[in-house]
Specification:
Layout (H helix, E strand, L loop, with lengths): L8 H7 L6 E5 L5 H14 L8 E5 L2 H14 L8 E4 H12 L10 E2 L2 H14 L9 H13 L4 H8 L3 H19 L2 E2 L1 H14 L1 H10 L2 E4 L7 H11 L5 E5 L14 H4 L1 H4 L4 E5 L1 E2 L4 H11 L11 E2 L7 E8 H17 L8 E5 L5 H10 L4 E3 L9 H14 L4 H7 L9 H13 L4 H6 L11 H18 L4 H12 L1 H8 L2 H22 L8 H12 L11 E5 H4 L4 E6 L10 H5 L3 H15 L2 E15 L2 E4 L4 H4 L6 E2 L3 H12 L3 H13 L20 E4 L3 E10 L4 E7 L3 E6 H4 L2 E2 L2
Parallel strand pairs: 1-7, 1-8, 2-3, 2-6, 4-5, 6-7, 9-10, 11-16, 11-18, 12-14, 12-15, 13-14, 15-16
Antiparallel strand pairs: 16-17, 19-20, 19-23, 20-21, 21-22
Helix pairs in contact: 1-2, 2-3, 4-9, 5-6, 5-8, 7-8, 9-10, 9-11, 14-28, 15-16, 17-18, 17-21, 17-24, 21-22, 22-24, 23-24
Length: about 750
């Protein structure tokens, strides 16, 4: 039996295409890797092509190794001389041999992200650029984007014209490239860009590699950027034997520089190209595929294809809409535990997919309470993320300044110019005097060798003391917001202007949601900062649990590409969450089309069962936002959906009707207290309550106003609270609300 007998007709046609450009449109789960490996084997076995003349380019080392191993197994190791490697590995091998032709030495160094940041930081110092306003990561991101598009520093400067920010980037870019060249170094973007430059400036080198690689194959072609397109176009321009495999419907990396136009316009760039569509899916049931087909059909910028399968119709896609995210997470954990306890599923069969990493928090907490083992792919557990640990360290310092670990973590976060030497001297003083690190900071002027850093340490202590004075009057959410505002933590992330920074901001917003839920909970009578930190600590302790090999996988939709699971929960299906607010509000319709492709990727990860869930209301920065069901749900015909049954809907309506007067009052209160505002002591024109009135405080509950004394800058209010007794407070801090 031939190794090609197992291929379907379209796969076989693609494998046996010999000469000329070929575009293989490989739908999700259609066996594209199989086609590529069989094509390499076919060229060698049936056409007698020397493996020396074959190149296959992938995006990851893992994919390259898998492809190489498959071909070698088919041909008993005969494929060793073929180049099967990533774009970057390919370019390194070429440059190590010929980069001296364009002014570098062949023993060049490759700079990683930390090296790049060090170079950019030094350049910013030299050019007197304020890195508080223009972050190093912002420069790195924009320079990388320029290199993806093969834009030189000179071209960038010309395009910047009168745009002050872009002119700054152009200055740094020019100096950055000069610095790298003087150090005989390249960054990862240069590996491809310099190879293109080499080919364009040295025709003999290009001709050598064109002769060497007469048959070129590129995997995941929809994810290529402009520089990668130019590279393979140059290599294939002599013989035209370029075979690219990809799926325009799975192009989801625009933010990394991927240019979907490379695959959509392939026939324009190569007019005699043959196009073969792989539409038979080997992964999913037909109902799941029909849902995916209907969603993606609403995109205009795509090549038509419709997935089908011989796997059978399968279950309908289940859709549930809940009142809030709490119920959504409770439902998912309940379904998983129920099916596992009945022996129908294993935990490892299940994946929870979401649009952003910040959405994992609610599911992590629910899974922990339900004893469901889980693992987060492509990220870390919510409470282990740097930005979350930073904010919690501030809260721990406010609640307990004796926590040396917390104080040391944040003393220079965001950067305050407090160096390692200063911190070391404070630590030595604390140990010598048997004092806490924070108490040593309070007497910084007595520590030998501190010098000019005294003022910086004193400012830090004063800031923490101010936060501590507000703890009694602020809710946990308000306290976090105050910390973020005073320290400028969010502003520093915004200044980076990168996807990673935005994701960190989203995570902090989710922590605010947690704080708001804690403040609002009727079960927490004291609503203290210490209580909040205890609650978080119990959840964060998940990191210390022994990992179960059979676990639910949780990941973003971007991380899920290329994977498959028997059961998929695609959560957060509301407009504003998925698709995101940014894509909905964008003036570029292509942004929404990319979100729809992301939805298509999520749906087609499911093999047997697919659950879609949405919430009517969701916390955003600690405030309740109401959302309509995602437009992507609307794209799916009703006959493919199994929607919420009447019993569950009735139960949900009953829940809405039985809202207590206390809850209604809390909603009213929240609408006033949680309105975004920067804290400042500002005397009001007047108060809405007088002595004798009943008022409500976010932490102390209800009480009776005993006395109001008007001062020059504020009102001093004395209140006898029902639960905690008499408290004196300033009106601007207390934010009392007259009780109904």
């Amino acid at each position: 039996m031939s190794i090609y007998d197992s291929l379907n007709p379209e796969q076989y046609e693609a494998v046996c295409h010999y000469e000329g450009p070929l575009l293989i449109l490989a739908g999700a789960g259609s066996g594209k890797t199989r086609v590529l490996t069989h094509r390499i084997a076919w060229l060698m076995e049936e056409k007698g092509i020397d493996p020396w003349h074959i190149m296959a380019i992938t995006f990851t080392n893992k994919a390259a190794a898998e492809m190489r191993d498959r071909v070698n197994r088919m041909l008993d190791g005969e494929a060793q001389r073929a180049w099967v490697m990533t774009f970057h590995s390919t370019c390194v091998r070429i440059l190590r041999r010929y980069i001296d032709r364009i002014g570098y030495s062949t023993n060049f160094t490759i700079y990683d992200a930390d090296d790049q940041k060090s170079v950019v930081r030094e350049i910013c110092k030299r050019l007197k650029i304020d890195t508080k306003m223009y972050k190093e990561r912002m420069f790195m991101s924009m320079i990388s984007s320029a290199k993806d598009e093969l834009i030189s520093p000179e071209e960038y400067a010309a395009k910047a014209q009168s745009d002050f920010r872009l002119k700054k980037v152009a200055e740094v870019y020019e100096e950055y490239q000069r610095q790298l060249h003087s150090c005989n170094a390249l960054d990862f973007d240069d590996l491809i860009g310099k190879t293109v430059e080499l080919f364009q400036s040295c025709p003999d080198v290009l001709d050598y590699y064109q002769e060497r690689f007469r048959f070129i194959m590129v995997d995941e072609y929809q994810d290529t950027n402009t520089a990668q397109f130019k590279l393979v176009s140059l290599l294939a321009s002599k013989y035209g034997n370029l075979c690219v495999v990809g799926d325009d419907d799975q192009s989801i990396y625009k933010f990394r520089g991927a240019n979907i136009g490379n695959i959509l316009n392939f026939e324009h760039f190569f007019p005699d190209a043959k196009v073969i569509r792989l539409e038979q899916n080997y992964r999913s049931t037909q109902n799941i595929l029909d849902a995916a087909n209907e969603v993606i059909s609403h995109n205009k910028g795509r090549k038509s294809k419709r997935l089908w399968t011989a796997n059978g119709e399968g279950d309908r896609v289940k859709f549930r809409q809940f009142m809030n995210a709490f119920e959504e997470a409770e439902y998912v954990s309940g379904i998983i535990n129920g099916q596992v306890s009945r022996g129908a599923w294993k935990y490892g069969d299940c994946a929870v997919l979401y649009r952003t990493n910040a959405q994992s928090r609610m599911f992590e907490e629910k899974f922990l309470l339900a004893n469901i083992p889980y693992k987060i792919v492509g990220g870390v557990n919510f409470y282990a993320r740097k930005e979350i640990k930073d904010v919690l360290a501030y809260l721990k310092t406010i609640a307990n300044a004796e926590d040396d670990l917390a104080v040391r973590r944040i003393i220079n976060v965001p950067k305050r110019g407090i160096g390692a030497t200063t911190i070391s001297r404070v630590q030595e003083y604390a140990i010598a005097h048997d004092a806490s690190f924070y108490n040593a900071l309070r007497v910084a002027e007595t520590i030998p060798g501190i010098g000019k850093s005294v003022m910086k340490l004193q400012n830090f202590v004063q800031m923490i003391q101010t936060f501590r004075s507000k703890e009694e009057f602020f809710s946990v959410k308000e306290l976090i917001e105050d910390v973020l505002e005073v320290t400028g933590y969010i502003r520093e992330l915004e200044a980076e202007g990168t996807e990673e920074a935005q994701e960190r901001i989203d995570n902090i917003d989710e922590l605010l949601n947690k704080a708001a839920a804690y403040d609002e909970s009727q079960e927490n009578e004291t609503h203290s900062l210490g209580g909040f930190l205890e609650e978080v600590a119990l959840v964060a302790d998940i990191d210390d649990l022994e990992e179960d090999p059979d676990h639910v996988l949780m990941m973003t939709l971007h991380s899920a590409k290329g994977l498959e699971f028997p059961v998929v929960f695609l959560v957060g299906m509301e407009d504003g969450t998925f698709p995101s607010y940014m894509s909905i509000a964008s003036e570029d319709p292509l942004d929404l089309e990319e979100e729809r492709r992301l939805c298509y990727v999520g749906i087609t990860r499911a093999m047997k069962k697919l659950y879609l869930t949405a919430a009517r209301q969701r916390m955003v920065r600690g405030e309740v936002h109401y959302s309509r069901v995602s437009r992507f749900i609307d794209d799916i015909p009703k006959n493919l959906l199994q929607e919420e049954d009447q019993t569950a809907a009735k139960k949900e309506r009953t829940w809405e009707k039985t809202v207590t007067p206390y809850q209604q009052a809390r909603e009213t209160f929240k609408a006033k207290v949680f309105a975004p505002q920067q804290f400042q002591v500002k005397k009001a024109q007047g108060l809405e309550y007088t002595a004798g009135d009943r008022v409500r405080h976010i932490k102390f509950g209800e009480g009776t106003v005993k006395e109001i004394v008007e001062g020059g800058r504020d009102y001093e209010v004395t209140v006898e609270f029902d639960r905690v007794g008499v408290k004196k407070m300033f009106a601007s801090f207390a934010r009392l609300v007259k009780a109904d």
